[in-house]
């Protein structure tokens, strides 16, 4: 078993590059290693490299906060400690797994309800990048604590089937 150390300069192939790098949140959650406090991981995407959900995380070995799917991530099999996203300002719904892939002709796409709920629960400014986002149910937003910032070509849709 290897150890991820604070300021370590090693990727998953063992090359020294600056920090541990993984392709997805799932890969970060499943790092099979011991993790030192303040170790960092660069995540290249939420589901896969380049999908807009990536970012830099540091290990807080004392955190027991709930995993919110975007800014606080629990490592698989580890009770105490969480990966914490390093950011300031607004949060992006893609950090929480949202996918703007709704096809209005076929009425199919990823259900983004959980991703939007988790982003909104974070409060503050929620950025919704360009895309066509499907939400399967009512999304409640308290506007006194939360603001939505939509990119010029972002659309949020709900689709109710006739069944």
List the helices and strands and how they pair.
Blueprint: E1 3-4, E2 20-22, H1 25-29, E3 34-35, E4 40-43, E5 55-60, E6 72-73, E7 82-85, E8 91-92, H2 113-121, E9 124-128, E10 131-134, E11 146-150, E12 154-157
Parallel strand pairs: 1-3, 2-4, 8-9, 9-11, 10-12
Antiparallel strand pairs: 4-5, 5-7, 6-7
The 3D shape can be described as globular
* Strand adjacency order, main sheet: 2-4-5-7-6
What is the number of E strands? 12
Low-confidence stretches: 6-18
* Proportion in helices: under 10%
**Largest sheet composition:** 5 strands, mixed
Question: Strand pairing plus helix content: what structural class?
Answer: mainly beta
Mean pLDDT: 82
- Quaternary structure state of the chains depicted: single chain
Distance between the termini: 52 Å
Provide a count of the helices.
2
Give a description of the structure.
The chain is mainly β and 163 residues long. Helices cover 9% and strands 26% of the residues. It contains 2 helices and 12 strands; from the N terminus they run E-E-H-E-E-E-E-E-E-H-E-E-E-E. It has a 5-stranded mixed beta sheet. A 3-stranded parallel beta sheet has the order 8-9-11, with no helix packed on it. Strands 1-3 form a two-stranded parallel ribbon. The chain is globular and about 45 Å long.
